[in-house]
């Protein structure tokens, strides 16, 4: 399911109560996408989320936020830091995940934290 609230786009994954765990790891990735590729980014997003749900242990949900200046913020919730690290090691290992990653022109920043 895909929800849009106040300019935020949220793809649902696991039940929202799973996000309340003190150990939930949050991945914050800021990146740039050229204006002519935005449609492709949005078109490939559901496939990327489905790929994560099928292939990434501990994936809980992802929220995509459009920022000014051709920048985007992806907020991804993981059950644990270990699950996030395992996902990162896999990279774009599936065509549905790679299609989304390929729309990204530049990585601006990437951070990891714990849900408070």
Automatic annotation (TrEMBL):
Alphabetically ordered keywords of this record: Monooxygenase, Oxidoreductase
Spans annotated as Disordered: 1-21
Gene3D superfamilies documented for this protein: 3.30.70.100
Molecular-function annotations in GO: monooxygenase activity
Domain of life: Bacteria
InterPro entries in alphabetical order: ABM_dom (IPR007138), Dimeric_a/b-barrel (IPR011008)
UniProt cross-references to Pfam families, sorted A to Z: ABM
Residue ranges annotated for the ABM domain, each copy included: 28-90
Designated name of the protein: Quinol monooxygenase YgiN
């Amino acid at each position: 399911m895909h929800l849009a609230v106040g300019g935020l786009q949220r793809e649902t994954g696991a039940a929202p109560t799973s996000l309340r765990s003190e150990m939930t790891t949050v991945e914050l990735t800021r990146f740039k996408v050229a204006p002519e590729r935005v449609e492709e980014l949005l078109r490939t997003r559901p496939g990327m989320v489905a790929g994560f749900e099928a292939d990434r242990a501990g994936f809980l949900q992802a929220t995509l936020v459009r920022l000014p200046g051709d920048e985007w913020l992806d907020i991804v919730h993981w059950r644990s830091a270990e699950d996030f690290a395992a996902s990162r090691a896999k990279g774009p290992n599936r065509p549905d995940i790679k299609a989304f990653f390929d729309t990204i022109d530049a990585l601006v920043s990437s951070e990891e934290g714990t849900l408070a």
